[in-house]
């Protein structure tokens, strides 16, 4: 049992070494590897045995042909045949081997599971130690990817901020343009109002002077006799109007 465990542990270490080498080469080309189509190899577990050393496959082979007792009957019959025909002679070496077999069986059943557990822990420790660098590299790459995504997100935010600043500048330019346009409109309107007021003032002054000139000339043209006749005629008209009422 111990020799079988040792061979399995060595085979397991060799397979683990091969798997780790394959994993190391796959890590160098992680971008080209498809985990779905090419799954990573895993360490295989040893098969089941009966009586400490007989593989389970032998019993399954006899079970389909001879039933459950077939393998045991075959073993007992084969041993009886070998002993009866003295093919296998039971000399002093036989009893020595039988004693050693009993001791080996007792040691394997008593200490075998503990030794196998200890060997599995050692193999797992070695595998974890070899995988530590790969795991750290994967974590570093994942962190780099997350940082790159965050940087891209921040870059998109900067683009939005730049667009907002551009729109703000355009709004400021539009406000300045409208302010200057209003200022020009106000100034032009003020000057036009001034010209209009000036023209109206000149027209009123001209009209006033013309009226005064006409009145003065008319007053000069009226003689005292004409003024008296006009006054008498007005009084006569007023008297006629008063009489009609």
TrEMBL record:
One of its GO terms (cellular component) is mitochondrial inner membrane. Pfam families: Mt_ATP-synt_B. It is found in: Mitochondrion; Mitochondrion inner membrane. Keywords: CF(0), Hydrogen ion transport, Ion transport, Membrane, Mitochondrion, Mitochondrion inner membrane, Transport. The keyword Membrane applies. Its main location: mitochondrion. GO terms for molecular function: proton-transporting ATP synthase activity, rotational mechanism. Belongs to the eukaryotic ATPase B chain family. This is ATP synthase subunit b. It comes from Parnassius apollo (Apollo butterfly).
